[in-house]
């Protein structure tokens, strides 16, 4: 064979001459490529979910920050993220080195996850995990966070929070890996990393305007449902692919993922029904996501019957966990902490009790692994608790430091102004809208010529964001005199076509001068 290739080939090989595919299993590679694509779909799923949970005036902004965070992570992961998170040559227990900087030395190397897939593919698959976690965190900006500082935060968060957490659990020399922690697909790096980071960011960002929170409800439940379905589909690649091969462990992980998600969803719906006597679709979506979260660290290590129990416990824990933000007075607008951090913690604790050695060995690689209490490994509980405490503490402190440091940089303050918050992030940050009602407003103005005359005197004819109560809150928050409201007809009066066309032109001119 030839000497090593500077572009990143294996030592002692030349990719131009040697067939680097020979050591790897083509079927396993195909499965991980498909799983990577499935996990990628979780990012738009998160975007739709967050957009639907927010109010209409910030719906587009949450889609933008979610998909843009993916762009930031792709660069960070290629640049040095993969090397810091999963390099196998680092000798410390905290974070990797720069041996894989720019994907060097990955082309023909076997992956740390399985010798049957190449490291180049492994790094691509793991990049999706970081991207999904960053997208989850960015929900903390909901309805009051500026988007550019959030992207700066994403880069440094991925470097200083996600990479160490991933290295602890999955790095060959990570301290948690060496202690024998059981974290199948990311209860620490992904779920604790996202939930606790979102809590820290929300704490630094501050609470939303309380006057604008009266009668708050998600603006589009159809989008929430669509996002949940995207997430469920992607999660099968997330958990199934973490077996790093098309094997029985991957199949078991998919089964356990569905069982946990469904029993968590049913439990959440029942808990909501006891209060409202209504069957909530948002409750079903929240329960499903909580179950998927809990299955992340556990689906590849516990039995199906334990997954059912995990779903029930997770549904209860995460449902009541939504009350935590009110107790600690942190405005976690989208309940990222309740669903992800708490769900991840429950899944990790379950591993200590219900992990089974024969489930872990279904991948054909980890035969002889030690389970939890079922295999009389009582030490596992202490390892899991230490891992959880260390992950939560490090994540919150480091995320808060990063957010606060960025907030102190001139021009990068995290929070939008109070006027921008009242206006909405879509208008303030993007100048685009998820729903544009300009044409509807013009029709209303054309139907009410008398109202247009009043508009010249400063009256508000149609509230800017669609409901009269909203405009009252805006006026109250600004402590100015309330603008008179004008009732609008539900049907247009009968008018000659020429007169109506003249009024439409006048309305367009009035809109232009606003």
Automatic annotation (TrEMBL):
Domain of life from the UniProt record: Eukaryota
- PROSITE patterns referenced in this protein's UniProt entry, alphabetically: AMMONIUM_TRANSP
Q: Where in the cell is it found?
A: Cell membrane; Membrane
> What Gene3D superfamilies does UniProt report for this protein, alphabetically?
Ammonium transporter AmtB like domains
Q: Which SUPFAM superfamilies match?
A: Ammonium transporter
Entry-linked Pfam families: Ammonium_transp (PF00909)
One example GO MF annotation: ammonium channel activity
Q: Where is this region: Disordered?
A: 472-514
- Print the keywords alphabetically: Ammonia transport, Membrane, Transmembrane, Transmembrane helix, Transport
Q: Which family does it belong to?
A: Belongs to the ammonia transporter channel (TC 1.A.11.2) family.
* Full protein name: Ammonium transporter
Q: Which organism is it from?
A: Madurella mycetomatis
What high-level taxonomic lineage is stated for the organism?
Eukaryota, Fungi, Dikarya, Ascomycota, Pezizomycotina
């Amino acid at each position: 064979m030839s000497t090593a290739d500077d572009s990143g080939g294996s030592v002692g090989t030349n990719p131009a001459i040697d067939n680097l595919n020979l050591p790897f299993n083509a079927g396993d590679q195909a499965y991980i490529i498909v799983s990577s694509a499935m996990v990628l779909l979780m990012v738009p799923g998160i975007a739709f979910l967050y957009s639907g949970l927010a109010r209409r005036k910030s719906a587009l902004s949450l889609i933008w920050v979610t998909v843009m965070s993916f762009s930031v992570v792709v660069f960070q992961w290629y640049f040095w993220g993969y090397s810091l998170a999963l390099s196998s040559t680092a000798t410390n227990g905290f974070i990797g080195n720069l041996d894989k900087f720019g994907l060097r030395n990955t082309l023909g190397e076997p992956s740390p996850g399985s010798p049957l897939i190449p490291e180049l593919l492994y790094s691509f698959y793991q990049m999706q995990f970081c991207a999904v976690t960053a997208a989850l965190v960015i929900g903390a900006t909901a309805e009051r966070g500026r988007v550019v500082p959030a992207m700066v935060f994403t880069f440094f968060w991925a470097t200083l929070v996600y990479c160490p957490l991933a290295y602890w659990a999955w790095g060959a020399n990570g301290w948690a890996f060496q202690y024998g922690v059981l974290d199948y697909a990311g209860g620490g790096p992904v779920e604790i990393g996202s939930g606790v980071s979102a809590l820290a960011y929300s704490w630094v960002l501050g609470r939303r305007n309380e006057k604008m929170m009266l009668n708050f409800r998600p603006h589009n439940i159809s989008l929430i449902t669509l996002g949940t379905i995207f997430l469920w589909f992607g999660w099968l690649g997330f958990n199934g692919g973490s077996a790093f091969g098309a094997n029985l462990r991957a199949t078991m992980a998919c089964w356990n993922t569905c069982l946990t998600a469904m029993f968590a969803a049913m439990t959440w719906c029942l808990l909501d029904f006891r209060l409202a006597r209504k069957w909530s679709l948002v409750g079903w979506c929240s329960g499903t996501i909580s179950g998927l979260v809990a299955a992340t660290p556990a689906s590849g290590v516990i039995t199906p019957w334990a997954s059912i129990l995990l779903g029930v416990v997770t549904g209860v824990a995460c449902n009541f966990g939504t009350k935590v933000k009110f107790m600690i007075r942190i405005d976690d607008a989208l309940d990222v902490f309740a669903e992800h951090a708490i769900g991840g913690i429950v899944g990790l604790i379950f591993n200590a009790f219900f992990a089974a050695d024969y489930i872990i060995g279904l991948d054909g690689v980890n035969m002889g692994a030690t389970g939890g209490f079922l295999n009389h490994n009582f030490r596992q509980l202490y390892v899991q608790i230490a891992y959880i405490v260390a992950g939560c503490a490090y994540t919150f402190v480091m995320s808060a430091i990063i957010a606060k440091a960025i907030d102190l940089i001139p021009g990068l303050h995290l929070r939008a102004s109070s006027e921008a918050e009242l206006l909405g992030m879509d208008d303030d940050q993007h100048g685009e809208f998820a729903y544009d009602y300009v044409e509807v407003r013009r029709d209303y103005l054309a139907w009410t010529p008398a109202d247009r005359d009043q508009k010249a005197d400063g009256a508000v004819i149609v509230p800017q964001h669609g409901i009269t109560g909203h405009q009252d809150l805006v006026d109250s928050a600004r402590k100015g005199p309330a603008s008179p409201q004008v009732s609008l007809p539900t049907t247009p009066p009968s008018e000659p076509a020429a007169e109506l066309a003249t009024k439409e032109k006048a309305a367009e001119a009035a809109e232009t001068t606003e």
